[in-house]
Structure formats: structure tokens, C-alpha cells
Amino acid sequence: MQTTIQPVKQVPGNADFEVRSLDTICINESVQRHPWWYNFKYLAVGIVFGVVFIKAEIISWFRIQEMFRLQSFHMYGVIGTAVLVGMISVWLIRRFNIKTIHGEEITFHPKKFNRGQVYGGLLFGAGWALTGACPGPLFAQIGTGALVVGVVLLSAVAGTWMYGYFREKLPH
Predict the structure, then answer these.
(1) What is the pTM of this model?
(2) Which terminal residue of the chain, N or C, has fewer Cβ atoms less than 10 Å from its own Cβ?
(3) Which chain regions cross the lipid bilayer (predicted)?
(4) What is the mean pLDDT of each run of 10 residues along the chain (172 residues)?
């Protein structure tokens, strides 16, 4: 089953907006609709993922500090393994034309590089180094009782909102 792409709303005289809007469309979004309780599978996977993060010490502030101080290979090994698994997974999906569980085609589209990614990456890395948390492990850290990480979570949400609000004025 092919997914359909919804047309982008035309904004007169704003071609840059139209081009950047195409980057935000979820090309592989499923067109099938399921009952609300189908989302519990994501909750279950998220809980398992959080437990793995905790057991592997990926959410440890000390491990993250060791990584940024170049004192330990632990986090680099985890990140490198994730990149390798991702590369192999994409290769397998392309090579064998693997489809989703529901039989929908998976397509990959080339990504365009822009200077805003450098600024965003530096800002993200600085925040990660200062707080010892990136968006994935935030919830696992809160789940372990580190409630002060709630401030980091609220800051991440506020930063995301600010980016959305000022997106048109930022360099892309």
C-alpha cells in the first residue's frame, strides 16, 4: 500500500517556507487507523527501552561526563553500536525490500545538509554535557527518582516550542 503525501499549503511569495515545509512531512506515516489501545505496544517497548538504558548505565550522569571528558569508551561504544545497527538495518530494509508489520512500503529520502544543523548540534551537545541528559533518557532518569531532571524536560519542551515559534527567523 502506498502512502500519500498531502499537498503543502501555498504561501504567496514564500518559496523558502514551502521548501522547508517539505522537510517536516512524515513520508512513511501509516495511513491505517487503529484503535487507541494499539498504542500500548509503544508504552511497553518504551518501558523495556528505559530498563535497558538504566541497566547499561546510559542514563548515568557520571557516564555522560566521562564521555565528554574522553575518560571512558563506554558511551562511545553504545553510540557506535547503535549507529552500526542502524546502518545494517537500513541496508537490510533496502536490500530485501522489507515492509512494515502492516505491509506498507518503507522509503528512504535523501536529507539536505544546512548550517542550522551545526548550530543545533552544538547547542544540543552543550546542553547534553551540562545536564547529563539527552531527550531519550530523560524519562528513564525521572523514573529512577531523579525528579530534578523534570527541569531539564521542561527546558527541552520550552526549547522545542521556541524553535517552532522562531523557525522562520532562524538560519537554515
Answers:
(1) 0.65
(2) N
(3) 42-62, 74-93, 118-140, 146-166
(4) 50 54 60 83 90 89 88 93 96 92 83 84 88 83 88 91 87 68
